Structures are given as C-alpha cells and as structure tokens.
Amino acid sequence: MNTTRMQRKKIPLHWQILIGMALGVLFGFLMSGFSFGKLFIINWIAPFGTIFIRLLKLIAIPLIFVSLVKGIADLQDISKFKNIGLRTIILYISTTVIAISIGLIYVNTLKPGVGIPEETIQQLTSAYAHDDAIASNISEAGKQTSQGPLSFLVDIVPDNIFAAMSNNSLMLQMIFFSILFGISILLIPTKQAKPTERLISSLNTIVLKIVDIIMKIAPFAVFALLSQIIVSTNDVEILQKLLFYGLTVLLGLFTMILFYLLIVYLFTKKSPIWFLRGIIPAQLLGFSTSSSAATLPVTMECVHKNLKIDNEISSFVLPIGATINMDGTSLYQAVAAVFIAQALHIPLDFTAQLTIVLTALLASIGSAAVPGAGMVMLVIVLESIGIPAEKLAIGLALIFAIDRPLDMCRTVVNLTGDSMVSVLVAKSMGKLKK
Ligand code: ASP
Prior knowledge:
- This protein has helices spanning 2-10, 13-32, 37-75, 78-110, 118-128, 132-145, 151-156, 161-165, 171-187, 190-216, 218-232, 236-241, 243-268, 272-289, 292-306, 311-324, 327-343, 350-366, 373-384, 389-400, 403-428.
- The protein is mainly alpha-helical.
- The chain has one domain: Proton glutamate symport protein (Orthogonal Bundle), CATH 1.10.3860.10.
- Helix 3 packs across helix 16, helix 4 (78-110) packs across helix 18 (350-366) and helix 4 packs antiparallel against helix 21.
- It starts with a helix and ends in a 6-residue tail after the last helix.
- The relative contact order is 0.17.
- The structure holds aspartic acid.
- Aspartic acid is lined by residues 290-292, 326, 329, 367, 369-374, 407, 410-411, 414.
C-alpha cells in the first residue's frame, strides 16, 4: 500500500495527464465499437470532464483578481507597471502578426483549397451548411460587426463589478477592475495599503491551493474529455477530404511552436526543453479542453512555479494574453480564409491578403478564449475579404468537420505564446531567475 502511494507520487503531473489522455482515446475507440458506447460516454463519463472545466472556470475570476492585484501591489512603483504593460502589448501584437504571416505563406504556397472536387464541396455543403452551429456562428459575428469601431474600448470598462464577475466572457472587464484596484493600492499611503495587501496575499495563497486541488483530478478529467471527443468525432472519410487543409494549419502551428522555442533560446539563453517542460501540463490541458480561458489557472501556475516567473509579471501577462493574444487562432483564421477562397474560386489579391493580416489580428483579439470562438471571428475575416454573404455558410461548412481537432491544437499555441511572452517580459525586466 505504502509503496504504491510512493510510486504514484513519483509520476510527474504531465505524465499522469498524458496517460489519462491516452487511455481516454483508447476507451473512446473501444466504446465506438458498441452501439451503446457513445451514449454511455456522453451520459456517464463526459460529465466528469465538464465538472473539471467548470472548476477551472470557477477559480479563474478570483485568481485573476487576487493575483493581478497582488502582482501590481508588489511592484511598489507604478512606472514599472507601465513598462510591463507596454512590452506585453507590443510583443503580443508582433507575435500575432508573425503567426498570421506564417499562415499566409503556407496556405499560398501549399494551396490546399485549389482543385477540391466540386462533388466534395457539395457534400460538405449539404452536410453542414444548414447546421445550427454554423448559423449561430454567422449571427454571433454579425452582432460583433454591427457595433461601432470603438465599442471594444467601451466593452472593456465594466459598469457593474458584480456583473463583470458573473460572466467569464467579460474577463477583460475583470482585468480592468483589478488593474485599477492594484494601481490604487500603489497610490495610497503604505500604512493604509498594508492591511489589504496582506489580505490579498493570503487570498492568493488560498486560491493557488484551490488550483492545486483541482489539478489532482486533471488526469481523470482528460480521460473523460478525450473519450468524449473520440465518440463525437465526425466521419473519418470526411476528415480525410480536409486532410491537406488540416495539415497546412498544423504545419503553421508547429512552426509557431518552433519559433517560440527559438526566441526563448535566443533571448534568454535558456534551453527550450526547460520552457517546454515547465508548461507542458498547461499545453496538455489546453489540448484537452480547447479553451485557453479554462486552462488559464494552470498556465499561471506552470509559468509561476515551474518557469519561476515572478507573480508581478505572470499575473498580468497571462490573463491579458488568454483574452487578447491568440497566435494559433489568428494563424488558423488566415489559413482558413484563404483555403475557403481557393476552394470557392474567389481570387484574393495582395490587398485582400493584407486585409487578412489586419482583420485576423483584430479578430483574434476579439475572440473569446473558449472552444470554437476562432470560427465565429473567422466570419468577420471572410466578410472583410469580400466573400459574399450567401457563400459564408458554404465556406464555414467546408472547414467545420475538422474544426474541433484544429481548435485543440491552436489552443496549445495560444497559451504557449502567452507563456513565451511572460518569459520575454521577465527577461527584459531583469526578473528571469537563473
Ligand atoms: N479555443 C481557442 C482558445 O481558447 C480559441 C479558438 O481558436 O477558437 O484559445
């Protein structure tokens, strides 16, 4: 009994999660062989995955608040905060533009959409164009575009803090309030600030403990999540038809990961393995949940504990990154937009490609960090390059079947990009531990 317990302790978390994932995939395939298999997994296994995601989301808002306030208060000096803020935003915008450009280069040279047989387009269109999910993606995107150009700024400012706290999609509003609160702590006399600082610091330790507790069920949760994904996967035959497009996106995402590793190495002289080993639990969870918002508590823990990045930096860079920095999503949007245009024989000139860079940048900032959000904002990119309204549903139908697996992979890139920027900002502030 004792030895078993000791052995279990020795298995690092990422191995436990990987084993859970592998068993989940196996179990999913096994159950697909039985007529009752899918229903069994949906009714009896999947809820445990949902519980895990709910727990992570539950802790996200308190975590953002206490760690951001603590991070800013620990800075002691408001000018440092401005420095961190500026560097973070510049790095986020630059990496996203690089990601979109990589996507555009691949999709324009590999041309996965050229020569797709008319019959395949018809088949995908009739299978998915009238799907409720596609209609709701288009109408969601419509709501976003019908607002004025500065509405995103208005949306960041909450008018009721409880309303902001009660809705995870309003995470930026929570970040805004936390920053305001943290800055105000810096601006009042130390004596008056101390009691709140102490309280926040203690709350921070408690919230991190809760994350630890939640992570104990991670290996079981990923089992549930992956077995559910396997039994809900589309026809393998349809997936094969989209293989070339899928591979183009994957190649782009893989290039992004290599790019991050290179940057980490060049700018910090630290080994890429050190970086990957530190954040692998977050990457695995991002892959299993397809949500960088749900994974945020784990990403924060990995970056802080494993990469030893100060809380003052990680607590600011990561929540903002989870909401506005999505390199994987923007790369995918660039590839998908051009792929759809190629398949539907709509020529795209240089201006259209530049428009993609700009709109995919804005779209990835506006995408929520939840499963499938990238596809909603893709509608805006498609509209901006002149895909006619009546072809939007057909365009989305072309890529719909393979969206979930790609979503899993782009989420990994999204959170890896955020973590890389934390490392760079820490290094540039002289805060990267040896
Ligand atoms: N699922 C992605 C994320 O949470 C967003 C997307 O690309 O759909 O980061």
